[in-house]
Amino acid sequence: MATYAKVRRMRLREGLSISEIARRTSLSRNTIKAWLRESTRRELSYRREAGSKKLDDHREWLRQALEIDARRPRKE
């Protein structure tokens, strides 16, 4: 998906030719043409929001333990 977005950006924002994009990305001109043709039909997908993590249930306890540890002297 990142390469697809890069190709579209090069063509639409930077105004590069298909041949120049092919040189810079090492992709076939036919691939680039196809991607640009379907760009109007393709819906861009976005990353999902981060879900809960395994440590979320213990976050408060960990924070407190780290605070206590930070107050302790370096050498004991």
TrEMBL record:
InterPro entries: Cro/C1-type_HTH (IPR001387), HTH_IS21_transposase_type (IPR017894). It comes from the Bacteria. Gene3D superfamilies: Homeodomain-like. Residues 7-41 form the HTH cro/C1-type domain. Residues 3-66 form the HTH IS21-type domain. This is Uncharacterized protein. The lineage of its organism: Bacteria, Pseudomonadati, Pseudomonadota, Gammaproteobacteria, Lysobacterales.
